[in-house]
Amino acid sequence: MIFKSFIRGNVIGLKLYKSSRRNINEEIGYTLSSIIEKKHQHPSCKWTYLNKTYELNRACINNIFINKEFRNKYYGSFILDKTEKLLQKEYHINYIKLLAWEKYNDDLIYFYKKNGYSEMCLGSINKYDDGENIYDLTPMDKYLTIR
Question: Would you state the pLDDT for residue 23?
Fold first, then answer.
């Protein structure tokens, strides 16, 4: 497998490719994330861990996509983990949030929970109808391990 990352403005992308000895032959999936600039953060974005105060350096995962033939084979967890590590190492991110768009009978919330994300308690779950599918919109977040 081969990873390629790119940056456009404050958007960081990570693509995962299946490879052979000769060439890159198939895209498995990708993630798109945004860095939330400090000037747009609330002044109380600090937290304490082991008697040290840390400033929250936040990012938002905007999109994660795995091609159908590669789903349910751990590629989603793999690319999500690589995205988190890239954000943490290169951009000093310690907090990630996202909005999960879950179709009926999908296991998207389960997927994020098994990867360490929690549902944010904001009251009721919103719904979105695009004319083809109805989605539950669930805000989720994760604090990354301090290194």
Answer: 61
